[in-house]
Specification:
Helix content: 25-40%
Strand content: 15-25%
Number of helices: 3
Distance between the termini: 42 Å
Radius of gyration: 21 Å
Number of strands: 5
Length: about 120
């Protein structure tokens, strides 16, 4: 692999180092094992791990009880930078409808695992 460098010119009152390598900004092994977009199931993405943790929590939570997103986030670590809004939107999506149902009650969104579903 060729060495990649950024050449930054100095101008104005700024003093920026020339020939500064950006290689140190990339984490070692970043996403070596996580590749998105594969239908074969060869790799588990961060999204997939998050969804599996949510499924496990909702199955464990109780059969006929609903959970708010706040309750889910107390027990489930996600990869989202804005976990409350992102997880709520994700769980409402049609591709999760086969295992997750949701309702709004008293201005709060509640979720539960659909019993008898294999997902």
């Amino acid at each position: 692999m060729e060495k990649q460098e950024a050449h930054i010119e100095e101008w104005g009152a700024r003093s920026i180092a020339k020939n500064h390598s950006i290689r140190h900004l990339i984490r070692e092994g970043y996403h070596d094992n996580l590749t998105g977009g594969l239908k074969s199931g060869e790799f588990i993405t961060e999204y997939g791990e998050t969804i599996e943790r949510v499924k496990s929590f909702l199955k464990w939570h109780s059969r006929d009880r609903w959970a708010t997103v706040d309750e889910i986030l107390e027990y489930v670590q996600t990869h989202y930078s804005s976990p409350k809004a992102s997880l709520t939107a994700t769980l409402k999506e049609t591709w999760n409808a086969e295992w997750c149902e949701w309702k709004i009650e008293k201005r709060k969104t509640h979720f539960r695992y659909k019993e008898g579903e294999q997902a």
